[in-house]
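Inputs:
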Amino acid sequence: DQQVKQNSPSLSVQEGRISILNCDYTNSMFDYFLWYKKYPAEGPTFLISISSIKDKNEDGRFTVFLNKSAKHLSLHIVPSQPGDSAVYFCAASRGFGNEKLTFGTGTRLTIIP
Amino acid sequence: GAGVSQSPSNKVTEKGKDVELRCDPISGHTALYWYRQSLGQGLEFLIYFQGNSAPDKSGLPSDRFSAERTGGSVSTLTIQRTQQEDSAVYLCASSVTSGRIEWTDTQYFGPGTRLTVL
């Protein structure tokens, strides 16, 4: 039972354009959502997060949008840079007191110079 | 400062053998998590330690898996009688507990231990 789904295993985007990565979830108890970025042979690194009380959070080139009614979130990267090439994982938790993360299967983003 | 470290980075073992994987969390982090990533899968939660509280073991796939955290710092994940389906990258993460209920504290991951069971 995959509670967090990333249906696109890979995505290629031209440098300078917008990258949009999508994530869907099924568990309505999730209260907090995160995006992690992973390079080969390294552990995931935290990128950006959003609480369920918000619908948008922005940090520099990265913006996360949350649509609770659709149980959908997306990560926008603009402008995309070659260093953004990595695997991106969407994750969710039930928040304070229940912080274990449920991850999606990841989307491999390739930025084409 | 130093991040989360894990050892060994790679471990190849024969089916039926026991293995121990080690995690050194970031100093001062009270929460420690173990996850694993099997081929083509997302990260799967295994176990969670928070301070002196009883660990959340709800993600451990079988009783062959166990973990302990000594002195609130270093953690060891032990897999007994390894099976081929145990082959995966085992990741450890730690976080500081802010106590703020409106968010989840950021988890910082180590580089992982790649376990191969032949």
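The radius of gyration of chain A is 13 Å. Flag for discussion at group meeting.
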